[in-house]
């Protein structure tokens, strides 16, 4: 083997008649100026007279997991990735890409520009650029349809979800799967042997025709994909550019693709998505000194209801042994059945094997005996939302488990400091507020009590990563971050309902803005009686602020949401929400009794007031120190409450407005909100002006 010649983050070595180009930019070989220059330099140094084929691979586990997103904050510099893919496609010798690990975005575009693609069986391939607000910009929208057909290319580019190498091989994106699964000598020898015997010549995808697909069928598929994207601007552009494949020359299509890519990269949605990408990867908590988190292997979950069984399932899937405790035998059986049904559904969708299901269930230990928690490293309580009941449970747990065992409550609103009172070693007590359904929702609020230690918090953050949650650290405060924000948002929507808007108009406007579901549909889905009971507890202080009684009247006539078939909407057998004249009559009667003359609302006002309610409450949370970081508020709303990811979050939006506009808007919100409204301090937001 010849000694490798190095070129910064790209290495070139000659192995017999095969030239091997190795991308070496840890940890994922992302595309940077140095990598792109290195590839072009390596191609320029290859002796084409003594070489029959070129292998393009990556050091470590990946070929290339995409671009360095920080580069998108600045103007593009040469060489650009399209220049590199063009050079690979035009190189006089066949180029063989080794697809491994995460080969995504620009990494897959490099592979598509090559003549042959080999892949390890565990590799994932995809063009997820829409998830960061752009489209593939180095030929991906044109080469992929020529490799796998327009329908699959649409699915991969507009949907943005990667596929496994086995599927990629089946659909023709990968030419051959490697048998050697581990990085090492055997795999290298297999790749080299393939390249040495390869005689297929150049096979550029640019020269392939795009298979014809009925235009109406393609449009219908695109509309379904766009509906799932919930208004993500880049998705619509991606659909348009992919469907144009084959309708003009390849060169013209590449120019159009690049123009759209450049136009999108500086757009506000793209900046919002990049902001969230980096915010989610920052440490949610940094201890004041170096701390070793505790090791957790066995977790007890108390309560086998919908929340408890969901928590148990996501903890099982993370590899822990789980004791699921429920004193009621019927409830315990139901909880285990829910877990089994979820796993069976995953098998049906092709996401899980029966062997994996059996392995998970083997680590589940259902029990009615509270003494079973004795050997746990952490206990998560998910029982009834009653302070006295939880306090009694924690006192009992403290006597059963080791003095270092973490004790966590899943409460949504209760004072965790009160729950921790009297517990030995209260430094181990904290809140772990999951969102329902716990096995699917990504947000996890890690709640710090007055006594919670930094080691406990660090352990909880390590746990959150293992269960694949987006964790934010919050102070012990009513509603913590998420529920308090949502309460302010819902309250403002109730104000607009009182003033003249209908539930369906408000829901439609906010869904058009990008929310996953409007607030009144959400209320019906959750059940209106829970919030009703909470409101009844505020009777003594209700006079201090504006109060809308419409939700109470809705409940009083037995309309409690989907579970009763009637709430703000009517629900038939298909469970779809249908506007109900009875609700319109209830609201009209209420307005008449209160002397309120209904007025018309347009979408813009509904959207603006709802957004401002979130911004204002976010500022109050910052002022009170409930959040560790401003970005935590945006993360909470995106991952827990269906806020459109491509808008970044309320504080991201507030930063773009500038101080003068923000202050003016907050003043307007105070005027329309009425008695008891507490105005947030616009000065707490670092706007584009203050950062300039």
Description:
With 692 residues, this protein is an alpha/beta fold. It folds into 4 domains: 5-266, 2-enoyl-CoA Hydratase, Chain A, domain 1 (Alpha-Beta Complex); 298-478, Rossmann fold (3-Layer(aba) Sandwich); 483-603, N-(1-d-carboxylethyl)-l-norvaline Dehydrogenase, domain 2 (Orthogonal Bundle); 604-691, N-(1-d-carboxylethyl)-l-norvaline Dehydrogenase, domain 2. The chain contains 28 helices and 20 strands. An 8-stranded mixed beta sheet has the order 13-12-11-14-15-16-17-18, with helices on both faces. Helix 12 packs across helix 13 (329-348). The chain is globular and about 90 Å long. The model is unreliable at 1-7 (pLDDT under 50).
Short description:
The chain is of the alpha/beta class. 47% of the residues lie in helices and 12% in strands.
Largest sheet entry: 8 strands, mixed
Spans of at least 5 consecutive residues with low confidence: 1-7
Q: What fold name goes in the CATH topology slot of the largest domain?
A: 2-enoyl-CoA Hydratase, Chain A, domain 1
Query: What's the overall average pLDDT, rounded?
Result: 94
Q: Report the CATH superfamily of the largest domain.
A: 2-enoyl-CoA Hydratase, Chain A, domain 1
Question: What is the helix tally?
Answer: 28
Instruction: Examine the secondary-structure arrangement and name the CATH architecture of the largest domain.
Output: Alpha-Beta Complex
Distance between the termini: 54 Å
Rg over alpha carbons: 28 Å
Beta-strand segment tally? 20
* Highest CATH level, the class of the largest domain: Alpha Beta
User: Which percent bin holds the helix content?
Assistant: 40-55%
The structure class reads: alpha/beta
Shape: globular
Biggest β-sheet: strands ordered side by side in the sheet: 13-12-11-14-15-16-17-18
Strand fraction: 5-15%
Provide the domain count: 4
């Amino acid at each position: 083997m010849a000694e490798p010649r190095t070129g910064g983050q790209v290495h070139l070595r000659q192995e017999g008649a095969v030239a091997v180009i190795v991308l070496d930019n840890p940890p994922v070989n992302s595309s940077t100026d140095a990598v792109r220059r290195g590839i072009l330099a390596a191609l320029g140094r290859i002796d084409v007279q003594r070489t029959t084929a070129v292998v393009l691979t990556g050091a470590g586990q990946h070929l290339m997991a995409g671009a360095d997103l920080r580069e998108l904050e600045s103007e593009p510099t040469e060489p650009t990735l399209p220049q590199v893919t063009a050079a690979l496609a035009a190189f006089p010798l066949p180029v063989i890409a080794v697809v491994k690990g995460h080969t995504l975005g620009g990494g897959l575009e490099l592979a598509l520009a090559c003549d042959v693609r080999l892949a390890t069986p565990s590799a994932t391939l995809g063009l997820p650029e829409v998830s960061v607000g752009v489209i593939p910009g180095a030929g991906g929208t044109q080469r992929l349809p020529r490799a796998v057909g327009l329908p699959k290319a649409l699915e991969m580019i507009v949907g943005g979800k990667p596929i496994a190498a086995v599927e990629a091989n089946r659909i023709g994106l990968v030419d051959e799967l490697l048998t050697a699964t581990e990085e090492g000598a055997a795999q290298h020898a297999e790749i080299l042997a393939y390249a040495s015997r390869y005689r297929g010549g150049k096979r550029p995808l640019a020269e392939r025709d795009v298979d014809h697909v009925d235009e109406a069928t393609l449009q219908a598929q695109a509309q379904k994909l766009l509906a799932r994207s919930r208004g993500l601007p880049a998705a619509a552009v991606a659909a348009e550019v992919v469907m144009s494949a084959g309708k003009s020359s390849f060169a013209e299509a590449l120019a159009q693709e690049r123009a759209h890519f450049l136009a999108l990269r500086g757009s506000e949605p793209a900046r919002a998505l990049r902001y969230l990408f980096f915010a989610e990867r920052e440490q949610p908590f940094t201890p004041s000194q170096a701390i070793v988190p505790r090791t957790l292997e066995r977790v007890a979950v108390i309560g086998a209801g919908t929340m408890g069984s969901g928590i148990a399932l996501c903890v099982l899937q993370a590899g822990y042994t789980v004791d699921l405790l429920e004193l009621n035998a019927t409830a315990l059986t139901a909880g285990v059945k829910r877990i089994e049904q979820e796993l069976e559904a995953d098998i049906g969708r092709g996401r899980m094997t029966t062997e994996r299901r059996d392995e998970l269930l083997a680590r589940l230990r259902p029990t009615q005996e509270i003494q079973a928690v004795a050997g746990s490293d952490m206990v998560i309580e998910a029982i009834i939302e009653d302070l006295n009941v939880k306090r009694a449970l924690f006192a009992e747990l403290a006597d059963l488990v080791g003095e270092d065992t973490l004790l966590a409550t899943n409460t949504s609103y209760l004072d965790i400091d009160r729950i921790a009172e009297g517990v030995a070693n209260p430094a181990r007590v904290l809140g772990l507020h999951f969102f329902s359904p716990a096995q699917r929702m990504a947000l996890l609020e890690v709640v710090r009590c007055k006594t919670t230690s930094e080691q406990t918090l660090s352990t909880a953050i390590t746990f959150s990563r293992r269960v694949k949650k987006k964790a934010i650290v919050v102070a012990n405060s009513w509603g913590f971050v998420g529920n308090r924000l949502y309460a302010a948002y819902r309250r403002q929507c109730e104000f607009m309902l009182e003033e003249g808007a209908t539930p369906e108009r408000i829901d439609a406007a906010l869904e058009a803005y990008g929310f996953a579901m409007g607030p009144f549909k959400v209320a019906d889905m959750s059940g209106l009686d829970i919030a009703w009971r909470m409101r009844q507890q505020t009777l003594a202080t209700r006079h201090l602020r504006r109060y809308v009684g419409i939700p109470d009247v809705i409940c009083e006539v037995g309309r409690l949401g989907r579970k009763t078939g009637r709430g703000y909407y009517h629900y038939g057998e298909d469970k779809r929400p249908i506007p109900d004249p009875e609700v319109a009559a209830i609201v009209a009667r209420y307005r008449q009794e209160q002397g309120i003359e209904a007025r018309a609302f347009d979408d813009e006002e509904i959207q603006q007031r709802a957004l401002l309610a979130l911004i204002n409450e976010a500022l109050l949370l910052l002022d009170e120190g409930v959040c560790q970081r401003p970005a935590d508020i945006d993360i909470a709303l995106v991952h827990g409450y269906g806020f459109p990811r491509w808008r970044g979050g309320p504080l991201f939006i507030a930063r773009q407005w500038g101080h003068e506009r923000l202050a003016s808007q907050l003043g307007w919100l105070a005027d329309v909100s009425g008695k008891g409204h507490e105005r947030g301090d616009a000065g707490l937001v670092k706007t584009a002006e203050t950062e300039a």
